[in-house]
Design goal:
Blueprint: H1 4-9, H2 11-23, E1 41-44, H3 47-67, E2 69-70, H4 74-77, E3 89-90, H5 101-115, H6 117-125, E4 128-130, E5 136-138, H7 145-161, H8 164-182, E6 189-190, E7 195-196, H9 228-231, E8 234-235, H10 236-255, H11 260-281, E9 282-283, E10 288-289, E11 292-293, E12 299-300, E13 303-304, H12 305-313, H13 319-328, E14 339-340, H14 360-372, H15 376-392, E15 411-413, E16 419-421, H16 429-443, E17 446-448, E18 452-455, E19 466-473, E20 476-484, E21 486-494, E22 497-498, E23 503-505, E24 510-520, E25 556-557, E26 562-564, E27 568-570, E28 581-585, E29 591-595, E30 605-613, E31 620-626, E32 629-636, E33 647-655, E34 662-666, E35 675-682
Parallel strand pairs: 20-24
Antiparallel strand pairs: 1-19, 2-3, 4-5, 6-7, 8-11, 9-10, 11-12, 13-14, 15-16, 17-18, 18-23, 19-20, 21-22, 21-24, 25-35, 26-29, 27-28, 28-35, 29-34, 30-33, 30-35, 31-32, 31-34
Helix pairs in contact: 2-5, 2-7, 2-10, 2-12, 2-14, 3-15, 3-16, 5-6, 5-7, 5-16, 6-7, 7-8, 7-10, 8-10, 10-11, 10-12, 12-14, 14-15, 14-16, 15-16
């Protein structure tokens, strides 16, 4: 079997874009004390927005700051001499116990540098070592962009923290590392085109490439760099990551007062690379950027999700090009895909691991680009998709099927006769930090500069007012409230007083409340249910006019429930309705919750009917609760000996109080669980 880690490592590349967008600003300012870890809370006035986005935000915080924060082993991670052994590091996630260079970079710029600066710094130093002469250098895990993306993450970390001591060491590390890449014989610089060669930023598996440079059976390797066409080829996202690295290295040099020729040298290299990218990758016929340019001059007018996001975020695309990219990019039902369309050796039924399939990191970068361009409806849709993927599947997984939203690791070829199906790992840190960045840099529009923190929020119609509490920024403890809807700021106040501009200084200390009132929300109907977003109580889930756009409880598909404790969507049995069914109700703590929408608050009882599968030898039990209060234990009789067979069971006398009671089935102490769920109906 090929190395799972190598195939998935390409994902980290996606993250670079998010970091770089914040990284491109610089200016004067002094170092600030590093803030303590921050565990903010996200509170929506709209209960449905809270259930969708607030729940996903809480899960993402837990993923980063609890599940994936581990102790730092100095013998293993202290090779730079800068590691603090008493501060933890962030691992890549479930199934991946190390920080990995790309993951450390992605997660730091997406969220860790803001939420826990000391943890982010330690994680960044955990992937740096020294050469024989004692020079600091970024470790290369697998591909060349492991080293390059670190540069942008480090500059972003400085902008968030103002830590001048960190910046000095980061500059030494970044300058030495880029020098290594410039002189590399493999994945180095091609002077003929003025571009860097080597695998695309995200796609370390050959499933992410058409033929050529691959072939129909992926006979050389499941990884990408062993393929000559990949190692000598040039790819959009990789060159954009180099462009951002040069830009941010110049920012570092300027801030540190390095000689002018150093600053100018890096800016000249960045400008030349930007010119080469637009010359060789922009395709006027498609109105977008090509994915690849092979050494023999072969081009590929395919869609690369990270490459398109980076072009917008890093400012490589001019305003007209950026608008054109957004107009010509294809999105799948559950998000923007990695690469698109399906290569001929893959299909919708068997999508390639790095082909027409959804990685949350790509979604996060694309959402950043959409928000930056003011495409509010598209930003709202992409953010809601990732929130739903997390909510439907007990947290943030590595990869999802772009058509069904089911947890799916994708397919891989291995010669003429073998095609195998990858697993998708749970608790993926960069999937969670992608969502955190959607909230911080998209919804709240946070942009970190050397001078302070500025805001360009993007609050979609129908989401309702939202408040982010207890966010630490340098020496300040912030509560940030968004009112209204739109992207245009009507008023900006700090502690009740009007403030010129839409920013706060880096020197701000203590507790402060920022209130931002927005206007100019996009008029539309995102879910296509005939209720405009501004009037829709559930604007990101198709519903009925009678229920103000919310789903009718007469039939609720189980895969749309909020699931925790390991419950996730699946399609590996037949006979289910909708896009999937739920499995994972196999251990204590597993639960599925359904919101029953009504036009007005009411008291009384109702009847529930559930469709389920039980191929065990006996009846199974679960606990039924409403609004968090236990009602009773309920039984699910055996249906048949096959998990492809489905039955129904009805429970009467269920108390349903309030306008939007939440019905939960959970595996509690004393239950036997182990059923699959298909749908729920309420009368």
């Amino acid at each position: 079997m090929p190395d799972v880690r190598k195939l998935r490592a390409g994902i980290a590349m996606f993250a670079a874009a998010a970091l770089c967008s914040a990284a491109l600003g610089y200016g004067a300012g002094g170092a600030q004390a590093i803030a303590p870890p921050s565990t903010p809370s996200l509170e929506f006035a709209n209960p449905d927005s809270q259930a969708l986005f607030g729940t996903a935000y809480d899960e993402a915080l837990k993923n980063l700051l609890q599940t994936n924060t581990i102790a730092a082993d100095p013998a293993r991670y202290g090779k730079s001499g800068l590691l603090d052994p008493d501060t933890g590091i962030v691992r890549a996630g479930g199934g991946y116990g190390q920080p990995w260079t790309r993951d450390a970079s992605v997660n730091s710029w997406n969220a860790t540098s803001l939420l826990s600066p000391a943890l982010a710094e330690n994680t960044l130093w955990a992937v740096v070592d020294k050469d024989a002469a004692g020079n600091l250098r970024v470790q290369q895990d697998d591909q060349q962009w492991d080293q390059v993306i670190w540069v942008t993450a480090a500059w972003h970390h400085y902008l968030v923290t103002g830590d001048a001591g960190f910046l000095g060491n980061a500059y030494r590390t970044a300058a030495d590392t880029l020098a290594i890449r410039e002189h590399a014989t493999t994945a180095g610089f091609n002077p003929r085109y003025g571009l860097f060669t080597g695998a695309s930023f995200f796609n370390d598996g050959i499933a992410g490439y058409p033929a050529p440079p691959a072939d129909a059976t992926e006979s050389v390797s499941t990884g990408s760099m062993p393929w000559p066409g990949v190692s000598t080829g040039m790819f959009l996202s990789t060159n954009e990551v180099y462009y951002a690295a040069y830009t941010n290295l110049a920012n570092m040099a300027e801030k540190l007062g390095r000689p002018g020729w150093e600053v100018t040298g890096y800016r000249v290299k960045a400008a030349a690379l930007k010119t080469a990218i637009n010359k060789h990758f922009w395709n006027a016929e498609t109105g977008s950027y090509d994915y690849l340019l092979l050494a023999d001059g072969t081009t590929g007018a395919y869609q690369e999700g990270t490459g398109l996001a980076f072009a917008v975020i890093f400012g490589i695309a001019n305003p007209a090009q950026a608008r054109s990219i957004l107009a010509h990019t294809t999105e799948m039902p559950w998000g923007i895909p990695d690469t698109y369309p399906n290569w001929t050796r893959y299909s919708d039924e068997q999508p390639g691991r790095h082909n027409a399939i959804v990685w949350p990191l790509v979604q996060g970068l694309w959402a950043k680009a959409l928000s930056q361009q003011g495409d509010q409806a598209a930003f709202a849709s992409e953010t809601a998709r990732l929130a739903k993927l997390a909510g439907n599947n007990s947290g943030f997984w590595e990869i999802y099927n772009g058509n069904t939203g089911v947890v799916d690791g994708g397919w891989q070829r291995l010669g003429d006769t073998v095609k195998f199906h990858w697993g998708s790992e749970p608790d993926q840190t960069w999937s969670a930090t992608a969502f955190l960045d959607m909230v911080h840099s998209g919804l709240f529009g946070m942009d970190f500069t050397d001078h302070g923190l500025s805001f360009t929020p993007d609050l979609p119609a129908g989401w309702g007012d939202v408040t982010l509490r207890d966010l630490h920024y340098r020496d300040a403890d912030l509560t940030i409230a968004l009112h209204g809807a739109g992207t245009r700021i009507r008023s900006f106040t700090v502690d009740g007083g009007n403030v010129p501009g839409n920013d706060i200084p880096a020197s701000l200390r203590g507790k402060h409340t920022i209130d931002i009132t927005l206007t100019g929300a996009t008029a539309g109907d995102r879910d296509g249910d005939g209720v405009t977003d501004a009037r829709d109580l559930c604007p990101d889930t198709a519903g009925t006019t009678a229920l103000h756009g919310c789903p009718d409880p007469a039939h609720l598909e189980a895969e749309d429930a909020l699931n925790t404790g390991g419950v996730k969507t699946n399609v590996n049995h037949t006979g289910y309705s909708g896009r999937a069914f739920l499995d994972g109700l196999w251990a204590q703590g597993a639960s599925s919750s359904f919101t029953v929408h009504r036009t007005t608050a009411a008291a009384g009882t109702g009847t529930l009917t559930l469709r389920y599968a039980n191929a065990n030898d006996d009846a199974r039990t679960m606990t039924l609760s409403v609004n968090g209060r236990k009602v009773r234990q309920v039984a699910f009789p055996k249906v048949s000996g096959s998990w492809d067979s489905w039955g129904t069971v009805t429970f009467g006398g269920v108390p349903l109080t309030g306008a939007n009671p939440v019905v939960t089935l959970s595996y509690e102490s004393g239950d036997t669980g182990s059923i699959n769920l298909d749908w729920l109906e309420v009368r």
